[in-house]
Design brief:
One of its GO terms (molecular function) is ATP hydrolysis activity. It comes from Ureibacillus yapensis. Keywords: ATP-binding, Cell membrane, Hydrolase, Membrane, Nucleotide-binding, Phosphonate transport, Translocase, Transport. It is a single chain. The protein starts with 15 loop residues before the first strand and ends with a helix. The chain contains ten helices and ten strands. With 268 residues, it is of the alpha/beta class. Helix 6 runs parallel beside helix 7 (194-211). The strands form two sheets. A six-stranded mixed beta sheet has the order 6-7-8-3-9-10, with helices on both faces. Strands 2-1-4-5 form a four-stranded antiparallel beta sheet, covered by helices on one side. The chain folds into two domains: 16-96 and 181-267, Rossmann fold (3-Layer(aba) Sandwich), CATH 3.40.50; 107-179, no CATH class. Strand 1 and strand 2 (34-42) form a beta hairpin. The structure holds adenosine-5'-triphosphate (ATP). Adenosine-5'-triphosphate binds at residues 27, 33, 51, 53-59.
Length: 268
């Protein structure tokens, strides 16, 4: 495992947490889904990735925690090169990266509380995991996080009795109980109505601002990216074609990002 961290550059607000360089991904030999992606995220930053369907947004997010293996390139996260980690080191490094999914990925028949505690699995031995052995501190942490997200009163409800917005708050709580440094959110509001979407985006913004956790969100909605992001990254056919603050995202830049799909965007 390659270690780059020093005592000086770790744990300080605003330091680089993630650095992606020369990242390429192809699922088959003919097509490159990501091409020469370069990006860096600071601690506590809120960054959105926008782009048309098929641009490679999900692939990029999933390469960062190696749910998908990149074809080549470097992903330096919290001082550690992710691309060359063995299974055990990858597991402990992944514990520091929470993931939030469009379809929540909860176990429907289990309670909210149990689903949230599943976020601790990355810190457990297989046996502890199988037996669902959680400490009192872990249970307290889970309840505190549910409280922060306005979900404490639902702790003992089964997840299949919740609305979409409530399920997504459970998904966020499960990611937060990992005590992550980075949250990867793959279309977290794509299945939600506007009111629930606002609740979720407000929570994600609050998490970056008050907990200092870096948040990287894939979004379809440009207006949402403009409202919440410190920085926006625009992806088109696997390449970054825009990177900058929301104020600088011109109509021309939006055309570069969405290309021939611009009409769909305006109609939305
Ligand atoms: N497992 C896979 N095997 C082969 N091709 C894949 C696989 N996953 C994604 N792709 C292809 O990679 C390209 C990028 O897909 P990806 O899901 O990363 O894009 P996206 O920008 O997230 O799209 P969307 O907004 O529709 O979710 C698409 O052409 C897709 O068909």
């Amino acid at each position: 495992m390659t270690e780059y961290k020093t005592s000086e550059n770790k744990g300080q607000q605003g330091e680089t947490l993630l650095k992606v360089e020369n990242l390429y991904k192809s699922y088959n030999r003919n097509t490159l889904v990501l091409q020469n992606v370069q990006m860096a995220l600071k601690q506590g930053e809120f960054v959105s990735i926008i782009g048309p369907s098929g641009a490679g947004k999900s692939t990029l997010l999933r390469c960062i925690n190696r749910m998908i293996d990149p074809t080549s390139g470097s992903i330096l996260f919290d001082g550690v090169e992710m691309t060359t980690l063995n299974k055990a080191d990858l597991r402990s490094q992944r514990a520091k990266i929470g993931m939030v999914f469009q379809h929540y990925n909860l176990v429907s028949r289990l309670s909210v509380f149990e689903n949230v505690l599943h976020g601790r699995f990355g810190y457990k031995s297989t046996l502890q995991g199988v037996l669902s052995l959680f400490t009192e501190e872990e249970k307290k942490l889970a309840l505190e996080i549910l409280d922060k997200l306005g979900m404490k009163e639902f702790a003992y409800k089964r997840c299949d009795q919740l609305s979409g917005g409530q399920k997504q708050r459970v998904g966020i709580a499960r990611a937060l109980v990992q005590q992550p440094k980075l949250l990867l959110c793959d279309e977290p509001i794509a299945s939600l109505d506007p009111n629930s979407s606002k609740v979720i985006m407000d929570h994600l913004k609050d998490i970056s601002e008050t907990m200092g956790i870096t948040v990287l969100v894939n979004l379809h909605q440009v207006d949402v990216a403009l409202k919440y992001s410190d920085r926006i990254i625009g992806l088109n056919k696997g390449s970054i074609v825009y990177e900058g603050i929301p104020e600088n995202l011109s109509n021309m830049a939006i055309r570069d990002i969405y290309g021939s799909e611009i009409e769909d965007l305006i109609l939305e």
